[in-house]
Amino acid sequence: MTKHSLSYLLIIRLALKDLYYDKKVSFCICALIISVITPLLLLFSLKFGVVSQLRHQLMNDPQNLEIKVVGNLQLNDAIFTWIQAQPETAFVIPLTRSLNTQADLMAGRNLFVNNAEMIPTANGDPITKGLPSITMPDQVIISGLTAEKLSAKVGDVIKLVITRQLDGKIEKGLTALTVIGILPEQRYSRAAVFVSLDLLITTEDFYDGYLSDTFLTGTGKTVAPKHSDFARARIYAKSLENVASLAFKLRSQNIETRTQATAIENMQAIDRVLGFIFSVIAVTSILGCILAFVGTFWVNIERKRKDIAFMRLLGLGPLSIIGFLIIQSVVLSCIAFIISCLLFLIGNYAFNVVLGDNLVSQPMVSQLQLYHFGIAFITTLLISLLVVGIGGVRAVKIEPAESLREV
User: Fold this and answer.
1) Which secondary-structure segment (H or E) carries 6?
2) Please, what are the averages of pLDDT over each run of 10 residues along the chain (407 residues)?
């Protein structure tokens, strides 16, 4: 073993022995650091947990991102291509006349839903995001309320019934559909069935008096026209900030729209207020943490001036003294951080168990990712090393005789 290695081992042993000898003081320093780090971890876990999730839900609720087309228009393929090409557009799909988007649903003899909404959907639809994609015209996704009324579950077959009056006679068209997904009520609260665009067009053709292969009645005009124009559209912006600009562009194309402008402004205001509140709390907490570290380690160094003077008289150089102080600060910071994490886990569990039961949509009230702990640990070490480094340099500049004379 080299001379330098022996010197390093000696400094490490001296630092650890000194911490153990001053175990009461070491405990007080650790306790002070823990009292600062643990509340900070809990505070940021709440911000990252319930507040961030709530903010994300507010800012990305599809209901708020929707731009509704007012009235029945004639929107052709060129218009839909133009809307899709806009950078603010997240999703667009044609929609037929409002009177043709109502249907009755049946499951068995006694379970039915009157006048359920028929809503076209496709890949990329923000409402049905995360649910299976409709690949066949006989596949549907139903809302939670519809599923409740029909007692339906995924894989069940339900019947869709529409009624028309043709040549003075009332006719009912009926087709069987397979449920491939159920939309949670939080995402769509009304009775609705999400269908393919082809099925919706077929429904409109049936309402308009045409013969249908889907709704078998054996009556009606034989050749349905190709749909090149649609009365309405479902349009969604990518973000709340894009809603107003996309609505403005649509109005410039003579497409009257309606948005949740007031609700959007309220949510943006809530987001700003929450961000400001937590920014103030975070800044003041971090400043308090830095001051606590400065005070704790600085006082400890001042308290050790006599010991430092003796060590210098025994032959330890300035770098060895600073290394001695840094080792002690690293050990104390590590111990304090580990205990803080354990206490945080207890508080985190309490938050999630007690508050999570009261927030159905927010089961995780408090949470931190692994990299959050890494950032917190590195920050703790950097602050302690910076404070100890500055204090150590200041301490070794004082002559040993001067320090001993002050004792």
Assistant:
1) helix 3-21
2) 68 85 84 84 79 67 82 83 90 84 83 87 87 88 90 89 82 88 86 90 86 78 77 87 86 83 72 77 77 75 75 78 85 90 89 69 71 88 83 72 59
Q: Is 94 helix (H, G, I), strand (E, B) or coil?
A: strand
CB 135 within 8 A of CB 96: no
**pTM for this model (two decimals):** 0.61
Q: At what angle do helices 3-21 and 23-46 cross, to 10 degrees?
A: 90
For residue 152 the two structure tokens come to 């339906």
Alpha-carbon span 101 to 232, nearest angstrom? 11
Report which of 154, 138, 93, 142 is spatially closest to residue 116, judged by C-alpha positions.
142
In terms of residues, how long is the chain? 407
Burial class of residue 303 (count of CB atoms within 10 Å of its CB; 0-12, 13-18, 19+): exposed
Residues near 283 by Cβ (< 8 Å), separated by ≥ 6? none
